[in-house]
Design goal:
93 residues; mainly beta; 5-stranded antiparallel sheet
């Protein structure tokens, strides 16, 4: 299952420390060495992205990354939200 999305926030001046703290509160970590996320199948320009880092869970990379945008620091979260294990509910085909 995959749920590829790009979510831009209106949060200004987000920095890596704030993002790490928020991720930790959700039981996730941040790996700044990961620079690309994608789905596990059918990788194309529409379901893969270059990122500033990726979220990890139990030491394993999630296909969910972030971009701290420009000088304003606006945050963008990009990737396969289903891979976080936090997606709930039924998905209709």
């Amino acid at each position: 299952m995959s749920c590829w999305r790009k979510c831009a926030s209106v949060i200004k001046d987000t920095d890596i420390d704030i993002l790490k703290e928020a991720a930790e509160k959700m039981g996730l970590g941040i790996d700044t060495s990961i620079k690309r996320v994608s789905t596990s199948y059918g990788i194309s320009d529409t379901n893969s992205a270059n990122v500033d880092g990726a979220f990890i869970k139990n030491g394993q990379k999630l296909e969910l990354g972030y971009v701290l945008k420009g000088s304003s620091g606006n945050l963008e979260v990009i990737g396969d939200f289903w891979s976080t294990g936090r997606a709930k509910g039924n998905v209709a085909a």
